[in-house]
Design brief:
By secondary structure, the chain is mainly α. Helix content is 33%, strand content 0%. The protein is built from 2 helices and no strands. It has helices at residues 16-21, 36-45. It is flat. The mean pLDDT is 83.
Length: 48
């Protein structure tokens, strides 16, 4: 099974240092589905 994902936003909107400084953990979960655009961005960002 395959899914067509929207193109990710590839411009750096924040520096690595800024991202680390703004990092936070959220441990409150909902049953709301993850928007397909967010999934696309996460998968693209996780590439090594």
């Amino acid at each position: 099974m395959t899914f067509d994902l929207p193109a990710p936003e590839q411009q750096d909107s924040q520096s690595l240092v800024g991202s680390i400084a703004d990092r936070r953990s959220v441990r409150e979960y909902t049953n709301a589905p993850l928007p397909i655009g967010v999934l696309s961005q996460l998968l693209w960002s996780a590439q090594v």
